[in-house]
Design goal:
26 helices; DNA-binding; about 750 residues; seven-stranded parallel β-sheet; globular; six-stranded parallel β-sheet
DNA sequence: AGCACGCCGACT
DNA sequence: GTCGGCGTGCTC
């Protein structure tokens, strides 16, 4: 049936595209290229890009899973092609745009195709290991019913009054719209008992709702209302945004910024297109979920690592079918199968959580940039203080900036020279200036925030006379004291008693050096008896029951002094803060990475901005340029300094750094292999394009305890280096090394 | 000569 | 990964 011309055309394409290009699900980098397979007549209609297939491969005739990335009418392969055995999926599990991005990432980050693919298909669980794969994964695709439980308020329930707090919350929620079980759980916590109660009373009803394709256009939720200033920025953006170039939004205030995102996403959603808003931490998404759901109703979805597999799958399906058009979430949200994606927002672009520390090693900010180009979507990145890369992009016109340029909004920073403090006979780590400031703040009934970005008790133990440092005999890492008198290796946990005299020269001046958070807390508690002191670090947050629980504890206002690590600058509500002080800023000034100045400036400008009164930093390096830049509040100076330094040394955005980590159990072999890799890159064609640093031992691999060596390559031509790496891999040169090799481009440390 | 073993390269 | 091919060197 149907029109003749169309049939003819169809037959023609089918006949000419009889070859499928297939990536195999296997873990050998050398084999990670598309292989050609013929498509048998009976599979013609089923095989298309984006579906998984089963194919025979190798002499052993193993049946393994593969992924179709393209169809063609000819092959360059000299031998005979084998046929595709069968199709695993009935329809593509990724969109054409996703497939494009997936291939780009595989090339750019030199990862396995299936490793990258897993990012896109995580909710449907593409199997990663061959052998048991075919059956299992086919089952996974139908493992979840395409429907979920939805709760509705009944007529009876609309009139109902109850004293139950949770029940009242549920009724209030459902008065707005219907909610699914998982949505409700994430908004209110585990409320199954109250829900059952309400069902019994007949105030709410439950139904199974199928996930189905939707052709609906226009958000069901309420309009986003902006303040005058926000509206101005919004209109400004609509007028001046340039198609194809990303936009940067200067950040003023978290909620204000979020409202802007909602407004922008709503505009897109009402045109029947999709949008994704990426935030750095789950807790931020959860904090804003109510506002978000009020705006987008059931066309919105929140996606993050805490969802259960089934919830992930439901959300994935709804996005795939166009039922959900706007997603708020963590970096993983970018990889959902959006239809017509036309807006990507990356909030707080500098956040370390945007960097994926396992394969493929990518930064979601960069991937979002590429994806926006592929989809023709608008890209918005945002932060209080633009990264040096973003600043450069703005000033060379590759990026357009919006909002008010006002990044360092904190009280004038006072630097306290601790060296001078010691010379004048004051040995306490709380200088007289800081002591005065804390007491003054207490008198005003305000809160003091003290930051020390260093865990533990002390830093390390060394001899004042001969400089001997006590190191772990196994790991060669400087040992730290945990509590007084005990040394502990931060890598392997080995403990030993602290010697009274230097083991090398016998001097009694063999003492702990530096200050750790635990000692700071101990000393502060002694000094400010009767005053509530709260410690905040990643551990303390987890122990208290998570971010929102900790935020509640802070909100109770029982603590006038809060001491902590960088975890303090997470989105807590501190209320009336009279003082933000860095107990010792030096540890963050130089941490051996090209972007340490940037990270330091970012972290501390946020921290100081928490204070409405004083800002103060104690340091032994009062002449440090980065620190002076922060103190004088001259942002332009900071950026021009950073840009000069990076340009001179070829660091991002003027060049790229590739880190190779070679690791394994045989220390000698690891060293040998790292040097081998060094020579390989030196002798590779095109080597004038890059600079290879000499290998260096980087201690022990955390977790496994394997020996680890590092090779760093700097290049202005990252594409050429990627190509050279591809060649080495295809030759099998890297695979051949007995040690394992991991690669990361422009990694984010810590 | 015949065979065991280990290394290497190919796999569409 | 897993197989076949090939060279080496040992044994009958």
């Amino acid at each position: 049936m149907g029109h003749k011309p169309l049939q003819k055309w169809q037959r023609k394409t089918n006949n000419s595209l009889r070859i499928a290009q297939v990536y195999l699900n296997q873990s050998n980098k050398r084999l990670d290229i598309p292989y050609d397979y013929t498509i048998p007549e009976e599979l013609q209609d089923q095989i298309k890009p984006g579906i998984r297939v089963a194919v025979y491969f190798g002499k052993g005739n193993r049946l393994i899973e593969g992924f179709v990335v393209g169809l063609r009418d000819h092959t360059d392969f000299k031998g005979t092609l084998r046929p595709v055995q069968r199709a695993i999926d009935s329809e593509p599990i990724v969109t054409p745009e996703q497939l494009n991005l997936c291939q780009w990432m595989t090339q750019t980050y030199v990862s396995l195709f299936y490793e990258t693919l897993a990012l896109f298909t995580h909710p449907v669980k593409v199997s990663l290991h061959p052998g048991r794969s075919q059956k299992e994964s086919a089952e996974h695709l139908v493992a979840y019913a395409d429907c979920e439980k939805v709760y509705t308020l009944t007529a009876l329930g609309e009139q109902a009054e109850t004293k139950g707090k949770v029940m009242r919350q549920i009724l209030a929620l459902l008065a707005h719209r219907d909610y699914t079980e998982s949505e409700m759980n994430h908004l209110l916590g585990s409320v199954a008992a109250s829900r059952r109660n309400l069902l019994q009373k007949g105030w709410i009803s439950v139904s199974e709702k199928a996930i189905e394709a939707s052709s609906r256009v226009g958000a069901t939720g309420s309009d986003v209302r902006l303040t005058d200033e926000e509206e101005k920025t919004y209109q400004h953006y609509l007028k001046l945004k340039k198609p194809g170039s990303p936009a940067f939004f200067y950040w003023k205030n978290r909620t204000s910024q979020f409202r802007l995102y909602l407004k922008l996403a709503q505009r897109v959603c009402r045109q029947g297109r999709s949008a994704v808003i990426i935030l750095p931490e789950v807790d931020l998404s959860l904090k804003y979920q109510e506002l978000f759901y009020n705006t987008f109703g059931d066309q919105g979805g929140i996606y993050h690592g805490r969802l259960k597999q089934k919830e992930r799958y439901h959300l994935f399906e709804k996005v795939r079918r166009g039922q959900i058009q706007v997603v708020l979430g963590s970096r993983a949200a970018l990889f959902l199968p959006f239809l017509n994606l036309s807006l990507i927002v990356v909030d707080e672009e500098m956040d370390a959580s945007y960097y994926s520390p396992s394969n493929p090693h990518f930064n979601v900010r960069d991937v979002a940039g590429k994806y926006a180009k592929i989809c023709g979507a608008e890209l918005i990145v945002s932060d209080q203080l633009p990264s040096v890369e973003a600043y450069q992009a703005i000033h060379t016109g590759r990026m357009v900036a919006f909002g008010k340029w006002n990044p360092l909004v904190f009280p004038a920073l006072e630097l306290v020279d601790m060296q001078a403090e010691i010379k004048s006979g004051h040995l306490d780590f709380i200088s007289r200036r800081l002591g005065d400031a804390i007491e003054q703040t207490l008198d005003h009934g305000q809160r003091s925030l003290l930051m020390l970005n260093r865990l533990g008790y002390d830093t390390y133990v060394f001899c004042r006379d001969c400089g001997y440092v006590e190191r772990c005999p196994d790991c060669q890492v400087a040992m730290k004291t945990t509590r007084q008198g005990i040394l502990r290796c931060p890598y392997c946990g080995r403990e030993k008693r602290l010697p009274r005299h230097c083991p090398q020269c016998g001097s009694p001046r063999f003492r702990p050096m530096g200050l750790g958070l635990d000692r700071a807390v101990e000393v502060l508690k002694k000094r400010y008896k009767g005053i509530g002191i709260l410690k905040i670090d990643a551990r303390a947050i987890a122990d208290s029951g998570g971010f929102s629980k900790m935020n509640k504890i802070i909100g109770q206002n029982n603590h006038s002094i809060i001491v902590g690590t960088r975890a303090m600058v997470r989105a807590f509500d501190y209320g009336n803060v009279g003082l933000s002080a860095a107990l010792l800023i030096d540890g963050d000034l130089n941490n051996n990475h090209y972007d340490s100045a940037q990270r330091m400036t970012q972290l501390y400008s946020r921290f100081f901005a928490l204070s409405q009164g004083k800002a103060l930093a104690q340091t032994y390096e009062p002449e440090n340029e980065t620190l002076l830049g922060l103190a004088c509040g001259n942002v332009r100076l900071y950026y021009s300094g950073e840009l000069n330094y990076r340009k001179a040394l070829g660091y991002p955005p003027f060049g790229h750094l590739f880190f190779f980590t070679v690791f394994g159990n045989q220390a000698a072999q690891v060293k040998k292999d790292c040097w081998q890799l060094y020579h390989l890159f030196l002798s590779q064609r095109g080597q004038e394009e890059w600079m290879v640093y000499k290998p260096s031992a980087t201690g022990v691999r955390p977790g496994t305890g394997e020996t680890q060596w590092q090779l760093v390559i700097k290049t202005k031509e990252k594409k050429k280096l990627s190509e050279a790496m591809g060649q080495l891999i295809r030759k099998g040169a890297i695979e051949k090394l007995p040690s394992k090799v991991a690669m990361a481009m422009d990694p984010v440390m810590g």
